[in-house]
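Same chain as my last thread, 489 residues:
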Amino acid sequence: MSDADGDHDRKSSKVVFSTLVANGDWLYMKGEYKKAIENYASALTLKPGDRTCLVGRSKSYLKTGQSENALRDAEASLEEDATYFEGLYRKAEALYHMGEFEFALVFYHRGQKLRPQVQEFRLGIQKAQEAIESSVGSPSSVKLKIKGDLSFLQKEEERVQPITAIQRLTKEKDEQPQKTPKRKMTTKQMLGEFYSDKKYLENLLKDEDLVKGKMKGGEQLQDVIHGCLSYLDACTELRSQEKPVRARKHGRKLTQRKRSKGRRNAPCGPGPFLLRSLDDIDAELTSGNAEESLKKAEDVMKMVQEWSEEEVPNKNEVLGSLHSCMGNALIDLGDMDQALHHHQKDLELAQQSKDPDEMSRALDNIGRVYAQIGQFSQAIESWEKKIPLIRGGLEKTWLFHEIGRCCLELGRPEQARGYGVRSAAAADAIGDEKWQINANVLVAQAEMKLGNVESCVSHFEKALSCSKLQEDEDAMKAIQKALDEAKQK
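reply #2:
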């Protein structure tokens, strides 16, 4: 085989690999987890050990209940770089769903040490602690053991969107400052909500049987815990240098919460209750039971409205998430007016909280409702407000495509072409063949409306080429038909 043939094969293999990974990501987003696993598996045959691909397959395995396979892929993604934080998060998640909450907690802490800005690690620490305490009691009164079967406590996968609204809920304990030594109080003030994590790790060290154990990767659990504690100590020292304690006292006061016996409340506190409730609401909607999802969201909404700001510090964000859930359920039920009302309420609350992620979610849903009822101008207006809030390439390419599609529906081919070109560029940047097809078809249709037949043919040919790489028979037939018609003109 000649060098030219070898280069061609390598380029072809690279294109196919990128296509398979992008398709796996897209299928995961659509909820087609088994198909996503197949695409990731095919990609790994072309590029074994690719850590991005392994992480993608790991989270897909977890969605289908294959926790052990998820753990195996997560560990494989860490073989070359043990500090790969996405691999650490997937490993922690897999361990958590296998019921190994203590080990999961250690890896959530390790990930947070490497990436303190990633909120998922903070949330993971909280839910792992709550799982341990709810199953065996608080660490101060119960000695944790490695042995035993905790699989009956296995939890479902956490939500992706609404869960972000409550990830800053903290569990504040009643305290007696007059009995607290001065140094201890200083550490509490410096670490804030992280102080409970420090105490939890210190209590774990008291369990001699536990700390002598080893992780699945061979690490000594005692060393891992000491590493996490060293990091928290370093944070305490750094914060004490940045801001005096006396100044902090006026900025934040610990509150003592004594709930009345008659108040309706979850026995384990608002945080865990809301996590489980949002999971249940989402599960009902995912399974096609929109009515039950709506009913549960309305019930939780009534309870949250009765709680104070002290019990739910970010109450507006929680309410916004519930409005979003209710809006999505109403879309499935066909009540677009009420769906729009709830998504607009979500946007109002997000603007009050000044949370860009919440605003992006609300604007996305509002645009979706407008587009479905044929009010394309309003859809464009909503989606264009979302553009500055875009996080990633995939979000960018589909958003530009949807705006361009609405422009085409309104008879604005020049604007449609502009957004189509931007969508195609974003799809090229992330190597997403699926969206390259959609974007090039949009540009081709806009060019046809503008009378630019040659450019129209060129973009249809690009779309056809991508559909062949995807082996999408339906797309190939539809694009070929449109291409033939364009050539005749």
